[in-house]
Design a protein that fits this description.
Number of helices of chain C: 3
Chains: A mainly alpha (about 500), B mainly alpha (about 625), C mainly alpha (about 120)
Largest interface: A-B, 66 and 54 residues
Strand content of chain C: under 5%
Number of strands of chain B: 6
CATH topology of chain C: Helix Hairpins
Oligomer: heterotrimer
Number of strands of chain C: 0
Amino acid sequence: MNGQYASLLIAIPLISAFFVPVIKAASKKAVMPFLVLVTAAQTAAAAWVFNEVYTTGKPIIVMAGAWRPPVGINLYIGHFAALFVFIVAAVSFLLSIYNFKTIKIEPIDKYAMLFLLLMLGATGMIATGDIFNLFVFMEITSITAYALTAYNKTGEAAEASMKYMILGGIGSSFFLIGIAIVYGSLGTLNMAQIAQLAGSMNATAAQAGLALLIFGLAVEAELFPLNAWAPDAYQAAPHPVTVMFSAFVVKAGLYAAARLLYIMQSVGSWHSVLKLVVIMATLTVLVAEFSALRQRNVKRMIAYSSISQVGFIALALALGTQAGVDAGVFHMVNHAIVKALLFIAVGYVAVELGGAEMENFRGLGRRMPITAFSITIGSLAVIGIPMFNVFWSKLRIILATVDVGYTWAAALVLIASVVEAVYYLRLLHVIWFEGSGERITESAALGAIMLLLVALVIVIGVYPDYVWNLAQKAGADIFNVAQYIKNVPLMGVGA
Amino acid sequence: MINEVPIILFVPIVAGILAWVLDVKGVRELIGLAGAVIPVAYLIKVYPTVADGKSITYALTLGSFNMSFTLNTMTWYFAIIGAVLGLTMALGMVSTAKSGYNWLFALMSFTAVLGVFTAQDFVSFFLFWELMTFASFMMVLKYNRHASLKYFILSVIGAYAMLLGIALVYARTGALDFATISQVFAKDAQLTGLSGMGYHATLTFSRTDMILLFTFFLTAFGVKAGAFPLHVWAPDAYSETDQSYTTFFSGVLSKAGVYGIFYVLLMMMGAKLYFSLGTFHGHPLFLYIIAWIGAITVVVASFLAVLQEDLRKLLAYSSVGQVGYILLAIGTGTALGFSGALFHVLSHAIFKGLFWLVTAAVILRTGKTRFEDFGGLAEKMPITFAMGLVAVLSLAGIPPMAGFASKWLIYEAAIQAHMPLVAGAIFLGSALAFAYVVRFLYSLWFGQRPSDLDDVKEAPAPLLVGMGILGILNIVFGIAPGLVVEYINKLFRKPVITGNYYKMITPNGTYNALSVTLVLIAGIVIAGLLYVYGARARKVPVTDTYQSGNPVTEEYNLSIRRNFYRPLAEALDFWLKYSWDRFYERLGQLSEDFADVLRKSVYNGNVQSYSWYLAIVLLILALWGVL
Amino acid sequence: MIEISAYYFGAIALIMIGLYAVLVKKNLLKMLVGLSIMETGVNLLLISIGYINGKSAPILSEGIGPKQAVDPIPQALVLTAIVIGVATTAMALSAAIILYEKYGTLNIEEIRRLRG
């Protein structure tokens, strides 16, 4: 089949989003099933693309309007994008089922639309090969994310959304300035061409451009101290949206930052930018873990934990070595699975018991055993207990970090990990050994989703080879810029 | 054909998972027991091979890490100790464990410990190390959150220190398997020695690297071994769990730390550490540090053990102290010392395991843990009492028990290494050990029995079998220490200690266990005859007590069951004010408060402050990147 | 080139004014106005990058071919950016309405139920 069908990945959610009002006009009950259908189709398309890319070993380049880059905007679905587009679609599919249980507030049709657009935005950010297109997808992601954060219509939701908007607005403005500088000095917006020409850029312009681009994306990628919006947004957003934030929206930002970082690696100040990101990432891990320590709201606690894990990923990606990037990508995959599991389970508890306060988790082991079991496995995985998936990626990250010579960074993030262990284990004690209550019948569908994710956590933990291989290929996709340039069929202009 | 190593390694955990999933009373006990018996059987089966100096290796690739596990002369020694203790633990748990949960995590730590002992690369070593910590943590978590968290935090700090060490080794050598790393260290040690003599050489590991590595690994292994000042988790964790499990926890898990020090610090990087860190008073500095840590551990833990009022706490501190002996023996740095350490690994495991099984039986039958609630149990639980007596004799280092043989070797080694202060610590520790076992012996078994203990029954059969195994081993290895010594000599590939089955000859002296035993038996027979025919027994009421010449008052009521060593505690008042435990607690409290302050000031809820963060980062970017 | 520097200067001045409003003004609406001013400044910056002195707008018409026009790409970009800016502002203002309903104030220092 023709690789151009990969543009379906963008087309399916976009077109479906516009069909939501039509569906709603037909029957209001059909909106949620429609969402399931669309995400299933998207998952199928993504699975096909994934299979195509990993069997042929070649990226799929989609050229809009058959214009060759850099004149036309292209999508670049390499190993990384194929893997992550699939994760985005699959998680969205699971969430579309989760929606039935968790989204009760009207207007559901608007929710469905925004849900699809958020999925689209993240997919686009991962797949695009054009820097301004990246900005557009980033804004689609952000604006839908703002709207979804405020969706619950409570004061807290609006507050969280407002914080997100102001910080996101500043971030994206400076990102745009970065684009302006890069375009001004290179005359191109195509990432492959930027990579090709980056070495010839005016040194000052290159440094400023790179710094501003990374700054803008760091807001999305939740790096300290640009992440202050994140805990509020995670806490106030509807539960499925929180899952999306943690599982792939932030990953899209991270990926974009990493991609831009590596395509501009011939810029003079590259190493100092890397170092700055390493410092910020380390601080992210530390501050977030300490902030989670005495949290009374479990959802917020896990939000902080998620931020700290993102710091781990950013640290790995900013090491500037193949091993670091591989480890970072591996951690991305593991984190997506584990945090999806945790947020789904915690959100479910919040729905059933009326809030994610720590008190509600007392005796959960007897009240909702499947959910409690899922939270347990998820927590143990995050802590880095062997035989669960995160163990392997954390190990890889630490090895890679010390290998580069950042022993201090490794030591600091490990100290933070100790803190992480403390609050997760306290939660587990509350769940299993404190309090009691009557048994609540758990939804079979949600139980199945959670157990599926638990199974993934354990399978990857016991047999990490397969996913590690994927992560290595995806990591090479980001790290090996020369190959990236070669893969994009640039017209012979500019160079 | 599948070789024995994976069976030995994975049968326990599989059995544990099955026991947990099925969780039917009767079935889970059978499965669990099978999971513990099979490794022992297979380990015995491979004995001829490893005794021959051959090894059996099992390799697998996981996450593109090459992992391998080997049973050879060295690892088999530790593995069989672990497995036998694991078996007795399982026997004890048949009586004491009430749920599949206990079986799952007990057997998981069984697998993990065997994995640690047999691992031949750092990844599997670390993986099983973490698994071991996790499994034992879960065993404590069920009983006490505070104790378990203290244990886990210290263990994880240790584990992460080790991870940093591993990462540093990996960064310098690019290898994770022990064989390659050992070679690199050996070569580097030679080069360091040469460069010390004036040759120029490029070293793989700098002096700073070695200091870091030593610190990292010593912290990691020190936590697990319960070495001072990282021992604070041990008393709580050992006492707040299923006591049958403590048999294994205290008997074997602490040995993982010892094994680490022995294998990683000594065999792998010992020479390099010696050349890089230099000597102190003619003694390798790093060994000197280990010896002193051991000596301080012995003294501190023994003093604290003496002062305990709770049976479990007393034994827990005693365990900590006994591991101190092992460290101290390693620290002497001589082949004799290493032999003593290895022997003491065995004898500590069997006598402390026995102690904990006895405790498990007593607690199971009486439900009490404090000395003041016990008394006169010897009549009610005669076999348990006999076993307790064996354990006491062995721990206190009275011939002809295994404990004496190993301690004797350690004395010899300390004297031979010219470490008089350290030897002094051993003597002090022994005296204190005597002081606390007397309490164990008297207040549990003799004297007046509280009326609520009148219908106590003998321990259940599986526990008795477990105790029997360990008790017999104590006596056998005590009378015939040559059995162990012969094997240890194989490790060194030369006879460090000569003699025969009953006789140990070191450069400084000879210990003939058989003649001691014969003399002892003769003495007991004579004393028995005197007692039966000669003594004029007179019955006295047991309530008629006195205390060191002081009258018994309500507030100063010292009996062997209550506050027996209070005068000692008062004498040590000044020292007891300082407690590492409280220090760590305060440190933990401080970091929690710090976390609160940080959280509330950084994430203060005001979006304008957040915007300022962005502005500040922009400013930093401007200063750093652009200008 | 003087004119172009003037545009740059103007653009950067607008960005700074906007940033100042966001960082200093306590009223939420003023902060949002600041955000909009900042976006305008960024858009102006983009436009001025593509501006070539003396050339006309990039609309293909009589007498104006590719050689006579300024760089069209920044203009396309700015169109997109303006649309995005409008969407963001609309979102922000509607959130501000909800905030005012729920909190009874627009003072940013009082809108901080979520913290820590």
